Amino acid sequence: MNKILVRTLFLLMLMSGTIAPVLGQLQLSPEQVNSDRTLLKIAPFKLISETIFFSVERLNQDFDRGLSIGLGYANKSDFSDNERSIMAEVQYRFYFNGFKDYDIQNNKASIRRGVYAGIYLDAEYTRVETEFSVFNPIGNFSMFDSNIARITSFNPGAIIGVQRTVGKLIYMDFFIGVGVRVSNITNSNEEFTEPDSEDISVFDPTYKGAFPKIGFNIGIGF
Predict the structure, then answer these.
(1) Quick one: which of 185, 196, 170, 157 has its CA closest to 22?
(2) Core-most of 52, 105, 117, 118, by most CB within 10 Å?
(3) Least confident range of 17-21, 46-50, 54-58, 160-164
């Protein structure tokens, strides 16, 4: 609970703008901002769900293409399940008019902004240890058993998004899209019964089918 509270407070600080304006006042020349080709970002909303996810985007010399590679780790547990995941993501982005500068405030300042479309591939490996009860008809009683599920999933798809600078240092990136998720699961215990497919949420690691994708990243460039 304490970890969730700390991460939530940190997220609220980011979203309320208490960090961005301070970093935005750092003295960077327009040439430094405009020449950033490598962007290091974090997905702050994922912190609420006990997930940390970083990504690095590298822009080409014309600032109209970008390759983004991300890595993440999640540790989710409740009373009966212990779930850990590692995830990776690759995005290739096409900026329609380039990721370029726009003058604001009567040419006294400028921002970088770009609208893009892209393709992506997500991969995730999840290990779920579950305790469940098994009825023994001979002794007419229930006993506890455990199962370890290993789930591998892939999700290719397409996105569209917008990225821009805030102040002189911060980059903000928002995208939406859709993909198709395929997954494979192996269980260590043959007695363990998987839930019906109708009962599986789109957020469950065993989910298969059309998969919505929404992302928000905040970071810095260099």
Answers:
(1) 170
(2) 118
(3) 17-21
Are the beta carbons of 33 and 168 closer than 8 angstroms?
A: yes
List residues bridging with 114 in a β-sheet.
163
Which range marks the domain in which residue 18 is found?
A: 2-221
DSSP 126-158: EEEEEEEEEEETTTTEEEEEEEEEEEEEEEEEE
Task: Give the number of domains in the chain.
Answer: 1
Q: 135, 112 in Cβ contact below 8 A?
A: no
Closest CA to 54 of 42, 38, 68, 69: 42
Q: Is residue 95 within 8 Å of 115, Cβ to Cβ?
A: yes
- Tens of pLDDT, residues 57-90: 999 988 999 999 999 999 887 655 788 999 999 9
Q: Is the dihedral of CA 158, 53, 186, 145 positive or negative?
A: negative
The identity of residue 12, as a single letter, is L
Q: What is the CATH number of the domain that holds 100?
A: 2.40.160
pTM, rounded to two decimals = 0.75
Q: pLDDT, tens digit, for every residue of 99-116?
A: 877 666 555 556 888 999
Q: Tell me how far apart the alpha carbons of residues 160 and 93 are, in angstroms, rounded to a whole number.
A: 9
- DSSP secondary structure of 153-172: EEEEEEEEEEEEEETTTEEE
